[in-house]
Queue: 4 jobs
Job 1
Amino acid sequence: MRTLLLTLCLSLLSLPVLAQHDVREYKVLATSKTSTMEKEMNAAAEAGFAFAAVMGGETAFGGNETVVVMQRSPKRSYMSYKLLAANKTGTIQKEIRAAADLGFHYAGQTVFTSLFGGDEVVVIMERDGDDPKPTEDYLLIATSKTSTLAKELTEAGVEGYQAIAMTVGATALGGQELVVLARRDRK
């Protein structure tokens, strides 16, 4: 009986310790400049935080900003980040490919109005410090017509691409466009 009572007491004492294993910490980053956001995200990553979510738009006190939520879980992360921003789809496509060649993978995207660049598509790419090899190819599809989007997505699907994100934004050449990012395993 004493052994049973002692076991019960010890197991009750260990419950708070077990519950702490799933505790997550959060950091909210907000800025109107993508270069500043990239620096802040990489500083948070050095402290063990990883990307969780992104939103671009008007905030109550900051005006037009990119807002990023970073989280730190008990399993420490060793990520690094690149923020790619452009109002020309050809430019952002080249930047995504170059980042993928360095082992970065898609993490999130948004559209926001910057102080200098107007409306920009912002793509967040992340790289695992433990496994930085390139494994994926990316394709950006931008069009103002849904029928064209359907056709181009079908063609991309034949090549093995899978749609992973979509935003609507004003780009320099096409005006209001549907912007879809697709990826496939690198061959």
Note: The chain has a mean pLDDT of 83.
Job 2
Amino acid sequence: MVGRETTRRRAGVDHSPTVLRRVVPALVFFALACWGALVFAPASFAQVYVVTLDPTQTKVEFALDTTLHQVHGNFHLTTGQIHFDSATGKASGAIVVDARSADTDNKSRDKKMHQEILESPKYPEIVFTPRQVRGSFDPQKSSQVEVVGAFRIHGQDHDLTMTIAVQPGAASQMQCDTHFAIPYIKWGMKDPSTFLLHANDTVELEIHARAQIAPDQPTH
């Protein structure tokens, strides 16, 4: 016994009950503190997010140049949600716009647009499906990212990259703005030009959305 006790003391190890009663609770507290830090970490430290667009605070606007004037119109957002991993850039989700809601404030023009160009009774949805997010993103700072995905309109998918400006707001809110061109004639839609009126072969689309960001589970 004397030999074993001497060995412990030489090694600097004290296994007395008093020391153990002090060390064990400290280790338990440390483990719980680490667990709590991981579970309740703020969203700014997360790498996987879900961004949900608010249809009531989102504007989807389009403009088409013609020889006489520029035609302006808008769509209604049905739903919009993007899941993405800021570390890998992998993304999923969908932004869905109601094609039947397209409105230029001119009944005869809108009737022709829906029946002959968009063919919205046959193709009622316009959908953007994200695949990749490029660029540095921090939910607490202003940033600009590129979202690569498939843009489905008139029943066909087309590769599209959106450049989105992101401005953080209060309570995990953010403002997202983007602008891009749609070569609708090249993508198989009818040219609305007539003998007297020439329309551009691309339409400009703008999206101004208020969104909510939150931590998300990793995509697979």
Note: Confidence is low (pLDDT under 50) at residues 1-11, 31-44.
Job 3
Amino acid sequence: MGIATKTIDCRLIVFAKAPIPGQVKTRLLPLLEAEAVSALYEQLILHCLHTAVRAGVGPVALWCTPSIEHPFFIHCSEKFQIELHQQTEGDIGRRMACAFYQTLKKADSALLMGTDSPSLTCADLKEAKRVLQQGVRAVIGPTEDGGYVLLGLRQYEPQLFEGVSWGTESVLEETRERLRRLGWHWHELPERWDVDRPEDVKRLISEGHLELKAIRSRLSPNLAFPLQEGE
């Protein structure tokens, strides 16, 4: 067998779950019914993929769980002309590590982003690619809640994903500490926010990131709020 050669300088990995009602964004259920949460999550994925493709930093691949056979993932592949890959089993750290390992065998650098932060911009992705091309080993896109929405690497390093308290407000600092122990220099993008809690949906609507009129009409009555003038 031949040895794989790197032919592309940067690849973009997008992580997503299948939008199955009751299995995604469960912390939003006090605000929306399960079907509406799933519809919102679909819009977040589509927005993320649109940003990823429009940024033009390199080929985009959608890494899926639990299966690439879900009709929505197939729709995304056809709509954006992107590859689908199956996420491995295990916690989010193990799944990200596997995606980076596989991708960095084919590219000089890789950016991995989630679908939870519509405030992440094309400019953010271009900046992340630029600093990696300049020789910085890692780039992080921090979030307000202590996590990160983007991680970019020039080389695979499993220590970045082992023993991290995933899903907590300490993820970002734990990752910084691992980078320090490795002796790596890294770059941080402007802080962004993600959509995890009911108040984040209100912020999402008020800042106009997505087209959510249909979802707005399905807000729980005790948490609903009026549309902006002209909407």
Note: Residues 222-231 have pLDDT under 50 and may be disordered.
Job 4
Amino acid sequence: MHASKSEAVDGQTRTHVPLLVIGAGPYGLATAACAKHAGIEQVVVGKPMAFWRENMPAGMFLRSGSDWHLDAAEVNTFEAYLGERGIDPSEFDPIPVGLFLDYVDWFEEREDLRVVPDLVRNLSRPNGHFEATLDSGERVTADAVVAAPGISHFTVIPEWVERDLPPERWAHTCNLVDFEELRGKRVMIVGGRQSAFEWAALLADGDAGEIHVVYRHDTPRFTTSDWHFTDELIALTATVPGWFRHLPPKSAKPSPGGSGQRAG
């Protein structure tokens, strides 16, 4: 791969890197650090942990434990961060989102990652190289691209919600992070998975008047998270590039993510 370089073209800066990482959330930052360890020059384009900072309520906790972290080299781990700060992992179970954000800031500084706080407006592939145009007008060309844009762009809003409800009467969990306006109100949550019950608990903490969770499936079992189901998927990703592109249509269809709330 070619080394990174910058040049001015038509009054705009154009940078070339071997690897462009789109997205500065946990996956994007972890990918950039892993590439750096492998000697691959890279740049991350995105606002660091923006979704976590702007779209997650302050009182939220993580399902993952302290053994989950961003460093494939097993050096700058979450537990290493806690140890440096003199924090016993058992004191934080579950883990507050704010504490994990502090870890990510520490990790980004330790890894000395190059992050451009911008957004990619367009991605094309002329002349065999990828070319990304940023909101700022700058352009980045790359030999390879890893896209880790996060989940906020893939919210699923039922058709009847937008058709039958005025905009001020509903919200998606990706956007509802301040519960003050719902204090004393009746709230219906449509959906019965993780986000639905998390937001129900947070609304209860925020003194909502009534909270009704409506869903058509069996009630989830509230047990300690077990992530072993990802082992096979990770192994496939490491050994069979693009395996997910060959899934049957039913399996490849995205699941409806998040929940909608209606306040009354």
Note: The chain has two domains: 5-151, 155-264.
